[in-house]
Write a structure and sequence with these properties.
binds beta-D-galactopyranuronic acid; two-stranded parallel sheet; D-Maltodextrin-Binding Protein, domain 2; alpha/beta; about 325 residues
Length: about 325
């Protein structure tokens, strides 16, 4: 008898024995767009470690960072189809697949992260999580996406007039595309990984992001003119596919949820430190920050976008609840 004929049945028996001892291991794949050391990556790693511990090693989660498994819209589909099990998504690209969370990307909706988390950690957060679950994504934790601002390669931006006519890279997400059009600029939707080249090669004049991503991507090295608008403050989410979730037992669900909640708190803490660090690094390297003096002209430009959300009773209620509280 050769190795080849014995190995399969032996493996089967070993796995069955392990399962009987509660030792069967399930390997899970988690998608992440950011590099090592970034708050999202570190929080995901800590999540993976905690799940491993809490389930006595039965679940082994591997975090694939730097978008090595594909860009964000692709990963959203991969999670739905079960090709990957977990992911950390920005609410921008995620909302194209789940219209029930679109309102979260509206410009000037949240005044700061504390305002955002007051809602996400409360009733509205539960509602958005339910909408996500119905679409195949179970939220394990809301992460911080920070405040996004514009930055350009060639000229200082002092007003909306300076942005008009520019080609601005946006996330692959409808709300962002509409927002840039309303500023009389041209939106260019590109995957995150392609933005540095696009800025360098002049395919786009500007991009927009939060400070930690502005720094971690090296965008600051080519686009030094930052127009600090914080036009979108929106969340990100650590999610697991409902395909996997539905297979988990009660105790394992609790272990995943607890690890997710803890990782969110860690992420938010790391985030604040990283914002400060990114500001320091980019300033020292020559980035020029011009703070918008008055956001009202920009808010007024967004009228048609708000109009759409006010026309729908559900999003109208969400929008009004958020701005009133
Ligand atoms: C980052 C966000 C990423 C991605 C990126 C982008 O702030 O964390 O998930 O959405 O922005 O602009 O593509």
């Amino acid at each position: 008898m050769t190795m080849r004929t014995t190995i399969k049945p032996l493996l089967g028996v070993l796995l069955a024995v392990c399962a009987g001892m509660g030792l069967a291991q399930t390997k899970l794949r988690a998608w992440n767009i950011h590099p090592d050391g970034y708050p999202v990556t570190e929080a995901m790693k800590s999540f993976a470690e905690q799940v491993g511990k809490a389930t006595q090693g039965r679940y082994q989660i591997e975090v694939f960072s730097n978008a090595t498994l594909g860009d964000q819209p692709k990963a959203v589909q991969m999670l739905k189809s079960g090709e990957i099990d977990l992911a950390e998504f920005s609410s921008g690209p995620l909302s194209d697949a789940v219209p029930g969370i679109k309102v979260l990307n509206l410009p000037f909706l949240f005044t700061d992260s504390a305002h955002m988390f007051r809602h996400l950690d409360g009733k509205l957060g539960d509602r958005f999580a339910a909408n996500l679950k119905a679409a195949g994504f179970v939220v394990l934790g809301w992460y911080d996406g920070g405040g996004r601002s514009f930055y350009c390669t060639n000229k200082p931006i002092n007003s909306l007039r300076d942005l008009a006519g520019s080609k601005i890279r946006v996330q692959q997400s409808e709300v962002y595309i509409e927002m840039v059009k309303l500023l009389d600029a041209t939106p260019v939707a590109l995957p995150f990984k392609e933005v540095l080249d696009a800025l360098q090669q002049g395919k786009v004049d500007c991009a927009e992001n939060n400070l930690p991503s502005y720094e971690s991507t090296g965008h600051y090295k080519v686009a030094r003119n930052v127009y600090v608008t914080n036009h979108v403050i929106s969340p990100e989410a650590l999610v697991v596919s409902t395909k996997l979730w539905d297979k988990l037992g009660k105790e394992d669900k609790a272990a995943f949820s607890e690890a997710g909640a803890k990782s969110a708190l860690l992420m938010r803490e790391l985030w604040n430190k990283r914002v400060a660090l990114a500001l320091d690094v980019t300033t020292k390297q020559g980035s020029q920050f011009v703070k918008v003096r008055d956001v009202s002209p920009m808010v007024r430009r967004m009228g048609p976008l708000y109009g759409k959300y006010m026309a729908d009773p559900t999003t109208r209620e969400e929008l009004l609840t958020i701005i009133a509280n």
